[in-house]
Write a structure and sequence with these properties.
By secondary structure, the protein is α/β, with parallel strands linked by helices. The protein is built from 15 helices and 17 strands. About 35% of the residues lie in helices and about 15% in strands.
Length: about 400
Amino acid sequence: MKKTIDDLNLKGKKILVRVDFNVPIKNGIVQSDKRIKASLPTIKKIINDGGKVIIFSHLGRIINKEDKIKNNLKPISILLSKFLNKKVKFSNETRGNNLEKKINNMKNSDVLMIQNTRYEDLNNKAESENNLELGKYWASLGEIFINDAFGTAHRKHASNFGISSNIKISAIGYLIQNEIKMLNKVLNFPKKPFIAIIGGAKVSDKILVIQNLLKKVDKILIGGGMAYTFLKAQGYQIGNSLVEEDYIEIAKKFLIKSKDKIILPIDHAISNKFFNNKRKITKGIDIPKGYMGLDLGKKTIDLYQKILQEVKTIIWNGPMGVTEFNNFKEGTIFIAKSIVNQNNVFSIIGGGDSAAAAIELGFEDKFSHISTGGGASLQYIEGKILPGIEIIQNK
């Protein structure tokens, strides 16, 4: 068991908190505040206990100096001030005397946000490649480290793994506690029937997910581009659809091993090019030459909806079609609606595009849990250790 924020005495201490405020910003305005709100319980706990809150987060990728302008955390610090009803001080520096002075001048319950940790990636990728000197330096700024960034828990970065490795006291915050609790509930104690819905472009991205889930679920409904590798493995015509030739044999083995647990599309919404054309539906499973599958067809949607009618536990990761095209997001929309229309269902979305689709439809509060970390939840479902959590001290 890892130490949690509730195991610690926070009063008067300088608390380094790694959050995940990697949110979309357009013209200086935050477009989605879900991740920010999800971190508020941890931040408020430290404030209420009289700790000094020093916040670390990344935002986007920093490859050149121009990226620093569009990935500045200042707008997020302003929004956080509104949520906390309290001034959040801001440091435009990620290291140095000015930052240290601001931290040393903090009073109990003060909040300070440090500039985008990935600004340090202009220094030979010091943040994302866990530069030892940077991790030690950031750890020296505080007395306790709280990791509450589930979205980066699968990464070894200086701002999570590096700090944890160089500080005496570390723990996880409420957001990570809740993520692990929810994922464990669906993976270890699911009510039956238990259905997994797996989409996305590539089989190669989801091999371990499928392998681990086959041991636990009653059925796996497949959608997205990855479906066409499975269908080709069965000998069907897939036209110009996305296919991973190197994974056809693996797909065949999965289909044999699954003992009919894997359910594939029986028709498709197709187009003659990767474009937002009008939907054209195939009569059956085969896709004609010159066309590519971009979404589930109506028969498949009906089939998947029927399977979902009796479900008690659902885990969903990945869209059913090309959701950036309005004409090919119907399968994803119908899956989302099918889930939220069921009674007494425990449902989890593992972040990513499927989460974005559910939120866009206004279903955010109708799922049992929507993960704040697509990559991290994916690796957790695969059964992998998350280094950003593993490095945290045990109780």
